[in-house]
Amino acid sequence: MSQLQVNRINDASGGVLAPISSVMRNRIINGAMLVNQRGGTVTGNDGAYGLDRWKASCVPDGKFTMQQSSTAPTGFINSLLVTSTSAYSVTSTDFIGLRQDIEGLNCTDLGWGTAQAKTVTLSFQVYSSLTGNFGGSLFNNAGNRSYPFSYTISSANTWTTVSVTIAGDTSGTWLTTNGRGICVFFSLGAGSSNSGTAGAWAGSFLAQPTGSTSVVGTNGATFYITGVQLEVGTQATSFEYRQYQQELALCQRYAIKWGGNSVYETFASGLSFNSTTAWVCVAYPVEMRATPSVEAGYANISVTTGGASNIAATNVAIGYSGTKAAGLLVSVASGLTSGQATIFGANNSTSAKLVLTSEL
């Protein structure tokens, strides 16, 4: 069956319906930058997530910010916006960029690391205040196999469509577990030790081709990206749009947020252990990739019991967790009564937030 599964069906008027694309053709999740559970503007520190599934990957930290933007090309309503925070000159060992790690279970058919490795095509749309040759790379979990790719932005502040075809790697180890299968990296600046030849597999980590434009090298430089797609085949097909609820569910395998909808929003219920600790149970809307942890930055959440209302939480920790539900230990300074039922949720704030994460 071809990569674009063409089912030509005549309608009642004698016309031909549009082709039906294959299911989950795009291995990238949230490529249209729609899902943004954490929200806000995020500083580009290594491992920090901006939009869902998109994180900063960098040494050193703090050279850019990232956020969701409504600047977008035709057919899209959002992009991911990067803004350089200084005119930083990269050193030889630096690498700074955006990254999505694709779970190995979603790469099992590619056969990378074998003689049957399949060719893939990476496509996306970019818009920058800078022009020149830009770069990125695909690499494996161990960081000892990488493929730097190059693309050109000829006109500043103009959407440019990019397509890069990459022959599958017949060497190295590429995970087909729930670990990192393929890492897709968009460089914002890298030094000589992490730059190399474009269009060829290398036996080390390379972030970009040598001589690529450094976004972080210009103070206030902007870089927008959307419509990111990685698919099997030698050419890019049209972007695979998924229903929002499908995209959200795919993102929730890696991060789930409670809060942000209304004041006093209820997250879960449970029982007080003693005057300072409550046990509450939360069920996940989808099965998570692995046992999650509580992401730092929870705020404006509280516990209510029969004897006291909206007692501010001082800490939230995993007491028991699997991939489908968790028991949380919620700490407060005082005010709980052992054995009383508790409600766990937002305080008098719409910015209340609790995120459980099992990101790659």
* Main sheet overview: 6 strands, antiparallel
Could you tell me the CATH topology label of the largest domain.
Jelly Rolls
CATH superfamily of the largest domain: Galactose-binding domain-like
Helix content: under 10%
Low-confidence stretches: 1-21
| CATH architectural grouping of the largest domain | Sandwich
**SSE pattern, N- to C-terminal:** EEEEEEEEEEEEEHEEEEEEEEE
Shape: elongated
C-alpha Rg, in Å?
23 Å
**Chain-averaged pLDDT:** 93
What does this structure look like?
- The chain is mainly β and 360 residues long.
- It folds into two domains: 42-252, Jelly Rolls (Sandwich), CATH 2.60.120.260; 255-357.
- The chain has one helix at residues 244-252; strands at 42-43, 55-59, 64-69, 79-84, 95-103, 120-128, 132-139, 146-153, 160-166, 180-190, 195-196, 208-209, 222-232, 255-258, 266-272, 277-283, 293-294, 301-305, 311-321, 325-332, 341-346, 354-357.
- The strands form five sheets. It has a six-stranded antiparallel beta sheet with strand order 1-3-4-13-6-9, with no helix packed on it.
- A hairpin with a 6-residue loop joins strand 7 and strand 8 (146-153).
- The longest helix is centred in the C-terminal third of the chain and has 9 residues, at 244-252.
- It starts with 41 loop residues before the first strand and ends with a strand.
